[in-house]
Amino acid sequence: MGCYLRGDVILAPVAFEERGGAKTRPAIVISAAENGDVQICPVSSRPPTDAPCIPISLNDFSEGGLDLFEESYILTARIRTIRSGEVVGKRGRLTQECVALIIAQTPNQKTKNTDSKKRSR
Questions:
Q1: How far apart are the C-alpha atoms of 79 and 96, rounded to whole Å?
Q2: Distance between CA atoms of residues 57 and 70, nearest Å
Q3: pLDDT of 29-85, one tens digit each?
Q4: Within a 10 A sphere around the Cβ of 68, how many other Cβ atoms?
Q5: ∠70-12-42 over CA atoms, to 5°?
Q6: What would the pLDDT profile of 70-83 be if each residue is shown by its tens digit?
Q7: Burial of 93 by CB count in 10 Å (0-12 exposed, 13-18 middle, 19+ buried)?
Q8: Dihedral through CA 14, CA 10, CA 66, CA 92, nearest 10?
Q9: How many angstroms separate the Cα of 1 from the Cα of each of 20, 89, 121?
Q10: What is the C-alpha separation between 120 and 75, in angstroms, rounded?
């Protein structure tokens, strides 16, 4: 089981619709608890029409990255909780500035800080 930090970019199973099945997609870790739960915001190639989002590009990565051919969007209103064992892989890490934007826009995250001190590679 890996340990993840706020701002890590991972690949994880995410369901965008309640009745649809989960697909492996990029996501941003917004918090990680010691019990193995990881809160994530999914990344999409299309902006939602009914909720806030944050555009993301290759310039927003401090290390690693995704195969972004055009702008993608962090869906800050669609927070999901998964077990760290469900994470398929880690793809990189966002800049501190980008992480601050995400946290400012996600409900209940402005004061919450449950990140682990360990980091997976």
A1: 19
A2: 7
A3: 999 988 889 999 999 988 988 889 999 998 999 998 887 777 899 999 999 999 999
A4: 16
A5: 50
A6: 789 999 999 999 99
A7: buried
A8: 170
A9: 26, 11, 11
A10: 24
